[in-house]
Amino acid sequence: TEVDDTGQIVTLSKPATRIISMAPNLTEILFHIEAGSQIVGVVEYSDFPPKAHDIPKIGSSHQFDIEAILALQPDLIVAWASGNPAEDLAKLEQLGMHIFRTEPRTLNDISTLMQRLGKLTGHSAISNVLAATFLEGTAAIRETYQQRRNLTVLYQIWSDPIYTLNGEHLISRLIEHCGGTNIFFELETLAPVVSTESVIERNPDVIIAGGYQGATPEWLGTWNQWSGMQAVQSKSLYTVDADQISRMGPRILQGMQELCQAIDQARGKS
Q: Which end of the chain is more exposed for a tag (fewer CB within 10 A), N or C?
């Protein structure tokens, strides 16, 4: 028995052996706690670790095939509370499926999720160790960078329109742990659209873009036309691996380290 992130109690008669993962980060966590061999279905973009490519796909996080799920006869569905269609999850529950809904928003949430999934899948011993190691790693990074000179940061997801993140998003909290301040911290929307003018007005010390597999997005260089901006003057435009830092799973530790190093490089220039 475990309580999920929506407060629902999930009880299984024995550890789950046929699991369906409804988000790429959940697939990563399950493999991380050594439950990967128990996964019988995943959604699109479940591409890490490489073994995840071999698992049957049941659709996407936003639109999955209920008949395909039922055919796989899962004894546990690990769901994404805000990303999976609520009505479809409810339908699966009505059909007798056990659903554990997740919504990790903090580093501690990721750690406790490892532990809870470890219990439900029969891997408590290793998951408890990995959860503790994860938190120790994040604490060590915070201790290294958090007290250093504060820099203002724009974290950019996309360029047309310009998507960023507000203070509620975990990446914004990671910026704080790195000794930075998100320039759009106070906005209400989790992933708001902002204007070029508003970025120029707030004049960030550093601009960081999320890139697929760490590749620099072509649009990041467009900021160079605004030579009056501090980030442009100091050449503090950086890219971090979007998969590592945006997926709420174990690799966020590497993403956090990469983010902190980028901000710290900018400190040396400004």
A: N
